[in-house]
C-alpha cells in the first residue's frame, strides 16, 4: 500500500481461485448445450471475468457493458449511468452477467431491465461478492461467490476511487470504520 489506508484480508487469492473454479463448474453444467454471452460489467469485473471464462468449459462469447454509479465516493449515488453498451446482439441469446460485487442492487437491477428490453433468451447473474445486508432493491442473483456483511472492499477488480483494483485478494478498507 502506498498510503496510510488500513486494510484487512477478507478473501485470499487462493480462496478466490477455489471459489471461481466451483462457480465455473456449476455454470458449465447449467449452460451445457448453450453458447452464452458472458457480459462483464466494467470496470470491476475485469479480473473475475478473466479468471472465470478460463475455467468455464463452454463455447461462450464475451462482451462488456460499462456502468457507473459510485464515482469517487464509497457510497452509491443510486443513479446508474450507461457508459458503454454491449456490442454483440443479445437478442435470442442466453446472457450471463458477470459482476464483481452487488451492494445496494441498483446497478444490477438497472442492467437486468435494460437487457430485457433487448429480448435475450435468458438473463442470469453471477457475482463474486454479495453484500446482501445492504440491498435497497430486490435482485435475484443466480451465482454468488461469497456473501459478506457491510464494509468497503477493494482488490481483485474492486476499487476505491480507481485505486487498489490490481490487488490479488479482496481486502476491507479502513476496517475500523466498517465496524468489522
Ligand atoms: O449494487 P450497487 O450498490 O449498485 O453497487 C455495485 C456496483 O458498484 C461498483 O461499480 P462502480 O460504479 O464503482 O464502477 P466500477 O466497476 O468501474 O468500479 C461495482 O462494480 C458494481 O457495479
Ligand atoms: O465494497 C465495495 N467496494 C468497491 N466497490 C463497491 N461497489 C459497491 N460496493 C463496493
Ligand atoms: Mg468502483
From TrEMBL:
Metabolic or biological pathway, per its Swiss-Prot or TrEMBL entry: Purine metabolism; IMP biosynthesis via salvage pathway; IMP from hypoxanthine: step 1/1
Enzyme Commission (EC) number: 2.4.2.8
InterPro entries: HGPRT, Hxn_phspho_trans, PRTase-like, PRTase_dom
Gene3D superfamilies assigned to the protein according to its UniProt record, in alphabetical order: 3.40.50.2020
CC per GO annotation: cytosol
UniProtKB keywords: Cytoplasm, Glycosyltransferase, Magnesium, Metal-binding, Nucleotide-binding, Purine salvage, Transferase
Domain Phosphoribosyltransferase intervals: 15-160
Catalytic reaction annotation: GMP + diphosphate = guanine + 5-phospho-alpha-D-ribose 1-diphosphate; IMP + diphosphate = hypoxanthine + 5-phospho-alpha-D-ribose 1-diphosphate
Main localization, broad class: cytoplasm
Co-factor requirement: Mg(2+)
Subcellular location: Cytoplasm
BP-aspect Gene Ontology terms: GMP salvage; guanine salvage; hypoxanthine metabolic process; IMP salvage; purine ribonucleoside salvage
Gene Ontology molecular function: guanine phosphoribosyltransferase activity; hypoxanthine phosphoribosyltransferase activity; magnesium ion binding; nucleotide binding
Family that this chain belongs to: Belongs to the purine/pyrimidine phosphoribosyltransferase family.
Name assigned to this protein: Hypoxanthine phosphoribosyltransferase
Organism, as annotated: Desulfoferula mesophila
Amino acid at each position: 500500500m502506498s498510503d496510510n489506508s488500513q486494510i484487512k484480508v477478507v478473501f485470499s487469492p487462493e480462496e478466490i481461485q477455489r471459489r471461481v473454479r466451483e462457480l465455473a463448474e456449476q455454470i458449465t453444467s447449467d449452460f451445457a448445450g448453450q453458447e452464452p454471452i458472458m457480459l462483464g460489467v466494467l470496470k470491476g469485473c475485469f479480473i473475475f471475468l478473466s479468471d472465470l471464462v478460463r475455467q468455464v468449459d463452454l463455447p461462450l462469447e464475451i462482451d462488456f457493458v460499462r456502468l457507473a454509479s459510485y464515482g469517487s465516493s464509497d457510497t452509491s449515488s443510486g443513479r446508474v449511468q450507461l457508459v458503454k453498451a454491449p456490442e454483440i446482439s443479445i437478442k435470442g441469446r442466453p446472457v450471463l452477467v458477470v459482476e464483481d460485487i452487488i451492494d445496494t442492487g441498483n446497478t444490477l437491477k438497472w442492467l437486468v431491465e435494460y437487457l430485457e428490453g433487448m429480448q435475450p433468451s435468458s438473463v442470469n447473474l453471477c457475482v463474486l461478492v454479495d453484500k446482501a445486508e445492504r440491498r435497497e432493491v430486490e435482485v435475484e442473483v443466480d451465482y454468488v461467490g461469497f456473501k459478506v456483511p457491510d464494509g468497503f472492499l477493494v482488490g481483485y477488480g474492486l476499487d476505491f476511487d480507481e485505486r487498489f483494483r490490481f490487488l490479488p485478494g479482496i481486502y476491507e478498507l479502513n476496517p475500523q470504520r466498517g465496524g468489522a
